[in-house]
Structure formats: structure tokens, C-alpha cells
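> tool_call: predict_assembly(chains=three)
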Amino acid sequence: MARHHVSATVNGDGVEFLCETGQTLLEALRDELRLTGTKEGCGTGDCGACSVMVDGRLVCSCLMLAVEAEGKSIQTIEGMAVGETLHPLQRKFIEHAALQCGICTPGILIAARSLLARNPNPTESEVRYWLAGNLCRCTGYHKIVEAVLDAAREMRGG
Amino acid sequence: MARIALASNLAPYTDGVLELELEVANVRQLFQALGERYPELRVHLEAGLAVAIDGEIYQDALLQPIAHDSEVILITKIAGG
Amino acid sequence: MSTMLKYQERELKIVGTRPLRPDGVDKVTGRARFGADYNLPGQLIGKVLRSPHAHARIKSIDTSAAQALPGVKAVVTRDDFAEMPDEYAAVGELMINFRDVTRNMMAREKVLYDGHPLAAVAAVSEAVAREALALIKVEYEVLPHVIDVVEAMQPGAPLLHENQYTAGVKPKPDRPSNVAKRLEYARGDLAAGFNEADLIVEREFNTKPVHQGYIEPQACLASCSEDGQAELWTSTQGHFIVRAQCAKVLQMDVSKIRVTPTEIGGGFGGKNNIYSEALAIALSRKSHRPVKMVMTREEVFRATGPTSGANVKVRIGCTRDGKITAAEAELNFQAGAFPGSSVNQASMCAFTRYDLANVRVVGNDVTVNRPKVAAYRAPGAPIAVFGVESVIDEMAKKLGIDPIEFRLKNAAREGTQTYYGPKLGPIGYIQTLEQARAHPHYSAPLGPNQGRGIATGFWFNIGNETTCSLNLQEDGTLTLMLGTIDVAGGSRASMAMMVAEELGIEFESVRPFVGDTSTLGFNFLTAGSRGTFASGMACVIASRQVIEKLRQRVAKIREVPLEAVAWKDGHARPAGGNVAQFAPMSLAEIAKMAGKTGGTIAGHAEINAQGAGPGFGTHIVDVEVDKQTGSVKILRYTVVQDVGKAIHPAYVEGQLQGGAVQGIGWALNEEYVYGDDGVLQNPGFLDYRVPVASDLPFIDTVIVEVPNPNHPYGVRGCGEVPIIPPLAAIANAIENAIGLRLCQLPFSPPRVLKAIDDAAAAKG
């Protein structure tokens, strides 16, 4: 079966890869581009560990076909820090111990950043509902919510 | 002689005997003596039993000394998750 | 010689503070590598063929078409694995019947659950591997199956193992049974105790299996070379255990397998066993290429161990003043396809929070056509305690006694004789009850359809075999090689903190790593809340060894007697008094000279840590019940727990919060749903509903510290206790809210609504 050639932008860099018809964007990112920061927790769009941004929209990459990435601009966890400078969310997660095993962390960070991009001053409830699509089994979400609210505060200049 | 007690769940393997006295100097000798007396208990001894000696619990401590006036209790080992 | 280092009270500089964890940056940038993130050139993808039947005899397996498919490089079935004798063999401290291990890994005579592996292939891509699986022809003789534990215990139930006779029963039964083992703890005179009682409450409870729910599916990568050596990367809680089990089932020398633990994306007890690891090694051996095997979420649910579902009967009697006079329980636990549930530990935990003269607990370990159960955080205890703490609550209410007061009246304390053996040492149970009562949560006002419940929990905690190695590098920094896996990402930091505290240096000077199996001696797996306790003890011993060597080295370098050299604040200094004076030396200065003055300085420890201290906790929960939908909302949650010593308070809080939320999920929504055909209907996170962020409030934590006298810093493990109280606490809160005692888990909306409607119908 001939593979498809896809050109896209990932974290600001132009990339090209080959993929099969049925391969998901998640599989292409991990197996073709070797960007393993985005994780597979379920493969059915229920856990959010595979969250990425596609043309500014929060997406479960396991629910998108790799061929659909043609011409799109994709942001993954690998692009969140700028050089050595961690994003405030990344810093706050470490400071607040908002991660334990860390497997859900990339997805949650991508989702949280997209929340703060559209709502820089969310309430606790808004944070919880926005992150309802990202499962975490270790933390009980407590320190995650604290870290997101604290990062939002810092990003507002507070 | 050290006073040996067994947790009640071990009764089926010792014909109901849950208390006895034995002259043993460490856990290994204790297991050997008990295994000789109660063959059905043998498979459980090294496999699945912890030993409380004078109140302190030891698991997999075959060379742990037992004093001549110690109180020893055999209990099932603990694992976890 | 077993090791116990006594607690010393002292002024602490680092232990008890909150430094940033060393692995944090890798995890927030996606750089950290978990099981599925490893790849080797030329690797093949391995996939498993799984039984579609709950119970069937395997008449034949024909893999010829699969083997012939282009792109398929190896196929394995039961024929590729040796028969294992029916006997228990040691794997570290675990005694395991490898007859069962090999069969759970790959079925031999029968398939015993929907999802049971019976063949595996390695192919050049996932697509080809799946195609190959579809070409494997299996002839099954489908047999009747049994899922429910009570049904499985009845004579005449479909039998999983023809040679299984109930152990622990005298005389030995003459007929095989699904009850693999019966156990009984008894103390005092139960009949007399119940006679003394003014009030007796008896209840029956039923719980469903729940999965540990780790977000990372099992994943491993195996690479075998032609000389019979194997390298394995796997996501596991115990790489030495993986090595030992693989070596046994594959009949290889232990030293020929090198297991590197990857970062682990959650385990909670579910990654204590091998699943695909030996299959990957066998496929790699056959294909002469690396083989990567990653489970799908569906496979995780169908074929990896959940915890037991159970049937629990509890009967307790007390005086009208609330003093318990007698207590008994019967615990019937599903073991899954092979024997070995945690019914024994559940039996030991059921009543241990109370000082009881007359107790009896009977436990049954029952095989049923479900995946073999695995440990899940305080295995067995939440189930038994769900029953006991619910009954205790009912008794307190009937007598008009405050629930905390009732528990205080009967509380276990230092010196209390347990019914399973020893007396309890110093413990913090009463402190947790008192602090819960004093907490503002306990007296906050409640609205309509809102209720408050409390419940308590206990876990033994363990120590076991632990090793570590501490090396002083030439610039004065140290590398700490650990053998106990860091499951929650915090323990490696806590180890570094203890080393830094011992040596009097900065936390950042100590870099901790978890080594592969070739770097250290055997370490037990990370479970039983043992990580910080046992590994911590090993690190302290290694640190003190390093200090001794530093003193000796400085004595030689400075040409003074050993007694003149003291170690303080990261420096060798004159010991003071009349001893010889000399210029102090820092770690960096000594390290620089080390090579030329005798060699590198290092410390190490190989211990079997004893003296783990039990942990106790008290939880308070407020719920609101929506009587229209049956939905139960958690309004407020407080965890009070004795952890001995919080080395890093933020990580302890994380354990308390995480464990409590797993308990909340267990109580409110999680369950396995099977069809009449014995096939799992909800193997995914959509229908297996774990808690999400919007289900929960912040979880308040109160850390109580009653030091464990057998650990240099007073540590008691803390990870397991928090999952124990939530089931009963929520049941008690629901009862408080709407006056209905629910005894069937989970309290999902349909169940709660049915209970409400049934009660209304009964009234009207």
C-alpha cells in the first residue's frame, strides 16, 4: 500500500513525513517524526494525553488522521518552552508539584495553555471544566488546578 | 525457651496448635523446627510468613536472633500495591 | 542481617522542605521517556491474539498462515514456552506459582477470560501484525463461564481448574472448587461477645472490580542477541521482579537479562507483574530483531489485573455506650482466572483500627472467569473497610453517638493486640481522629440533600530488599544510584534530600537516578508504601558509610588521628576539644584529591529493611445527592493521615490527594460491566468512568507526624492508606444526606436513583 506524503509545520518548523491511510496524527508525530512527548493513553479520544494544537485549536491527535495534517500548523509539548525558558505553566507545574508520574502532563499543559489563551482569568470551575477532557490518575487534580490558576495570575502580571 | 505463637489463620496447618515453646536461636531454626513438627506448615513458612519478635516485625530475616525469653508471633507476610 | 535504623529526633535543614524535583523539567517538556517512547533501529511490532471467550478449551492453534504472511518475522504460542511445575518459587520475597504465571502470560490448555493471550506475532509494522493475528486459526470448545463470586463458590458452578481443591480446609475436600483457599482469623469468644451486645448490626455488601486506571498502557521493548543475552526496557514498578519472572518462564539465567525501567506512567500495583515482557523477549529471540509491544487501552482493561470484586458480610455488636463487644466478617474475593487475590490482607485490615477482644474474619479466594487480579493500592483493604466502616457508622447513628466519638471509644493505640498477630507499636490513629474532629470541615453547615460522612483506614506498610550506591564524583557532587523505582516522581527527590541532610550539603549537589538491573543488587518492587521508607533507609546507610570514609581519608591527608575529624555541614572539621587542629576540607576538595589518595569514595547499602510503621488515616467528605438523577457530587473532602515524617510535604500531599480521588472514583462510578457472554463491555475510558477535574473540589490534607521509631527520619509509608476510607466515607455521607444506606458499589446515578425510588415506593 503506497504511503501518503504530508507536509506540515510542527512547532514552527516545516516537516515532511510519510504515513499510511489509517495512521492517526498521534502515530505520525510519535513514530514518523519521533516527537514522543505527546502520549497515547487510550487511542479513542477519552483521556486527553494526546492533546495538541492544530491551527490554534485544541485537538485529540488520536482522533485526527495524519493525512489531515497537510498544510496545517501543529503545536506539541516540545514547542512549549522557548529555548531554555520554560513557559510559566511548565514552571508552575514543577513548583506546585502538579505532576507525579508525568504521563498526563504534556496533554494537560497544552490544554491549559489553550485555556489561558482564550480566558486569561479563569475561575477554578472554568479551569476544572476546561481540563475535564484530560485524565490524571495520580494527583486528584488538586495541585494541577492550583498551578494553572497561579500561572494565569503570573501571566496577567499579578 | 522462646514462646512461639501463631496467628489464628495458620490453625489448619498445625492441627489447631497456636502456642508452643521452642529452643531456637534465630528465625531460620524456628522455621526448621516448626517445619519438622508440622509438615503442612512447611510450604507457608519460608514463603509467606513474617515473624514478630518481641513486638518488632521481620520479613525475610532468616538470621534474625531469637533470645531465650523472646515472644515470637508468626503472621502472614504483607505485600502492597 | 535485617536492618532497622532507629529514629533520632534532630534539627533538620532539608528534610521537611519542598525543593524542586530533579525529573520535573523532563516531564513538563515531554523529554522524559516512558515505556512506549523507546525505539530501536530495525524494531518489529509485537501484537497479541486474545481469547474472545470467557471460558473455553483450546483444541488447536494453527499459525501457519500467519507465519507465511510477508512481513511477519516470528510467531509464538504455548509451544514456545516451557511447562512450569505446580509449585511456589521465590521471586524476591514473593512466592509465585509459575504454573499460573506462564498460563496467564500465554494460555495452555484453556482460555479463562475474555482477553486471555494465546499467541503473539512480531511483524514489520502494526498493520501487518494485526493482519497476521487475523490469520491465526484457533479451535475452541466453549465452556460455561462464571463471573460472580458468590455464584462461583456454589457447588456445581462452572469450574476453572480441575485440580484446585480449597486449601486451608480440614479435612481436605474431595471435590475441586473455585474456592482456591479459605482462611480464618479468630480471637476471643465471639458468641459471648455478641451476647453482651445491646445492639447488633449485620449487613451484606457487594463491590465490583475496578482497574488501577494508570494512564500509560503497558509497554516494553526487547532486544535479544545471538549469544542468548536479552535487553528489556519496560514500564514497571519492579524491574528486578520482571527480570526474575522472565528468566524463569524463559528458562534463562537471571544475569543474562538486563532490564531498564522506563519512566512509569502510573502503576498503583497494576504493574507489579509481567504481561508482554517475556513474549517480547521470545519474539525477539526468534526473529533476531528488537520487538516492541505496547498494549492498547482495550487490552489493558480486558487483560491486565483489576482489583477484586467482592461479596462482604459484616456483623458487629456493641453496648449502648458504643463499646464494641464482638465483630465478624466474611470476605469473598474474586481472584480472577488464577488464585491469589488480596483477601488475606483485606482480612488483616478489616478491623485493625479497633481494640477488639472477640473477632472472627473468614476469607475466601475464589477463581472466576475474569482477568487475574493484581494489587491496587492497599490491596483488599478498601473493600473490607467499606463494609466495616459502614456498619460502624450505622451503629453510631442508631445509638446517637458522634461517629468520631464512637471510633475514639474503640480506637487501637500503641500496645493494642491485633487479631492477626503482633501488638501495634507507636501509631497515630487517635491523633488523626482528633484532628479530623477539630478541623473546620467537621462542623461546617450543610444544606438540603447534603450529608457528611467519615471513615478511617489502616495499612501495614513494608520494607524489604533494597540496595543503593552513592558515589562522590571528582567535582564534589554526588550521584545516587537507586534500585527502587520512583513511581510518583517524588521519591528520587526525597532520597536526594535525605542524603543531602546526612552529608550537610545542598540538595542540588546530589543527583539521583534509578539504575537498571545490572547496576545494583536485587530491589523489591515499589509497592506497599515502601519506597521512601526502605530506599530512604538504604540511602542513609550509604551516606553514613561515605561520611566514615571521608573522615578516614581526611585523617590521612591531614595526618591527624581519626578521632580528630568530625563531619559537619558538608566539611571535615576538627572535632573540637583537645584533639589536633587542621584546616577543614570541603567535599569538593576531598573529591579532587580522592583518586590520588587511595581511590574514589563511595558508599553503598544492601539491606532488607525492617520496621516499617503502619499508617492510619481519617477522612471527612461532604456530598450532595441529586434526587432527580441519582448523581452524587463531592462538595468537600479532607484527608487526615499519620505519615510518620513528611520528607517532602508536597509529595506526601500528592499521595493523599491522589489516593483519595481513586477511592472517590471507586465509590461513585468505576466498575467492570460484563455481558451474559462473559465479555467485557466497557474496556475504555468513555464507559469506565474515572474521576475528571470537574467532578472534584480541592482535597484538603492534614499531615500528622507520629515518628516511626524504626526509621532514621521517622518515615512511615503514606501512599496506600488514602484509598481505603473513601468508599465508606461516601456511603456514610450519602446516608447522612438522604437517609439511605447503600451497600452496593459503585454509587452510580442509576443505582442511587433506584434506591431512592425503591424507598419512596416502600413508603408510599
